């Protein structure tokens, strides 16, 4: 440690706060009983249509943004932020609603965009491929893909990403 800087001090939380955090009798009950799980499943099932609509809206907006990026190279850096945020939303919702592949595709897209500066035409094409793949997963209801199919799809996307990621 640098001279003049003291070691960090750890301050213990008050006892009542620690009890709540570790679920003592005075804290919150965080056990998932069958009844609680049924309620959660019911809410998820009731909102499945809203989920599909939300994802479709996000995917449509992504396509609009990609088209705008193709038409206006100067705006690409700002457009990528919007697409990244939409991909983040899809990533979070996919697993909750039983679409783990959708989450993986959205994560792949978000990670790819995070490494880009201003994307070129080939990189925009890889972004479009991600979006198209998410459309297919949702439209076909692929919520339990075979491990082989999932692995092949994600591996092919990785190859595409690797081929264009360093293109300037």
Give the gist of this structure.
The protein is mostly helical. The chain is extended, with a radius of gyration of 22 Å. The mean pLDDT is 84.
Structural class: mainly alpha
Using the alpha-carbon principal axes, give the shape.
extended
Largest sheet report? none
Content of β-strand: under 5%
N- to C-terminal distance: 42 Å
| Radius of gyration of CA atoms, rounded to a whole number | 22 Å
Number of H- or I-type helical stretches:
7
Q: Identify low-pLDDT runs.
A: none
Report the helical percentage.
55-70%
Mean pLDDT across the residues is: 84
One letter per element, helices H and strands E, the order comes to HHHHHHH
Counted beta strands: 0
Oligomer category: single chain
Structure, explained:
It is a single chain. The chain is mainly alpha-helical. Helices cover 70% and strands 0% of the residues. The chain has seven helices and no strands. It starts with 14 loop residues before the first helix and ends with a helix.
Topology summary:
Layout: H1 15-21, H2 34-46, H3 48-71, H4 76-96, H5 100-114, H6 121-139, H7 147-164
Helix pairs in contact: 3-4, 3-6, 4-5, 5-6, 5-7, 6-7
């Amino acid at each position: 440690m640098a001279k003049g800087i003291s070691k960090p001090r750890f301050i213990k939380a008050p006892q009542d706060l620690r009890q709540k955090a570790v679920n003592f009798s005075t804290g919150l009950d965080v056990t998932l009983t069958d009844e609680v799980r049924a309620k959660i499943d019911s809410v998820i099932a009731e909102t499945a249509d809203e989920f599909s609509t939300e994802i479709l809206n996000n995917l449509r907006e992504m396509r609009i943004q990609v088209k705008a990026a193709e038409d206006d190279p100067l705006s690409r850096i700002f457009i990528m932020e919007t697409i990244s945020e939409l991909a983040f939303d899809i990533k979070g919702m996919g697993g909750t609603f039983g679409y783990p592949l959708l989450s993986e595709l959205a994560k792949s897209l978000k990670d790819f965009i995070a490494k880009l500066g201003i994307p070129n035409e080939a990189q925009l094409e890889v972004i479009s491929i991600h979006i198209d793949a998410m459309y297919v997963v949702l439209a076909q209801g692929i919520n339990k893909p075979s491990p082989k199919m999932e692995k092949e799809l994600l591996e092919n996307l990785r190859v595409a990403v690797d081929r264009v990621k360093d293109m300037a």
